[in-house]
Amino acid sequence: MLTLLLSLFLAAPADTIRPTTIIVVRHAEKLAQPANDPGLSPAGLARAAALDSALADVKITAIIVTPYARQRQTAALVAARHGLTPIEMAVRGGVPAHARAVADSARALGGAVLVIGHSNTIGHIVEAFGGPKVGDLCDNVYESFFTLLLVPGRVDVIRSRYGAPNPPSTDGCGVMKP
Fold it and tell me: What pLDDT sits at residue 178?
């Protein structure tokens, strides 16, 4: 369903106004070690494959990540499918400044841009595009998929899920509600 919707928007004739499509997800499940830059766990590798599958029919034009192994690994299959090298943007000047920089870069790139964030950057990134307040994601939330359609004068946001259900919470944080 989501892939069909995105395909319809991106297949609009060249003489019509086509929205910029921004897809915002959190990096997939990570290993516990090394603490400073863990890669993906087996569940995370499966989620990265699910992301590639969910975006198989979307012509991704750019991918934005932060410079961490879990980000690069989450993006790897989608990047390979489309022959892209992810653009690394470090979190500098705080999370809100990073979110604004990501939004500015993605708008300038145009097309269908995949943005892979962190639990504490996703909400700020959605808001930086003019979307609703999302807030930080719980530590156990990995399945959230935000599709932002940027058309002149408005931002339409579709919140959906991909891959396996979120793992159970171990920190008292509830699972996100749709």
Answer: 39
- What is the SS3 string spanning the chain? CHHHHHHHHHCCCCCCCCCEEEEEEECCCECCCCCCCCCECHHHHHHHHHHHHHCCCCCCCEEEECCCHHHHHHHHHHHHHHCCCCEECCCCCCHHHHHHHHHHHHHHHCCEEEEEECCCCHHHHHHHCCCCCCCCCCCCCCCEEEEEEEECCEEEEEEEECCCCCCCCCCCCCCCCC
Can you give the pLDDT at residue 176?
43
- By percentage, how much of the chain surpasses pLDDT 90? 79
CA dist 159 and 29 (Å) reads: 19
pLDDT of residue 106: 96
Domains detected in the chain? 26-161 (3.40.50.1240)
Taking only the tens place, the pLDDT of each residue in 82-98 is: 999 999 999 999 999 99
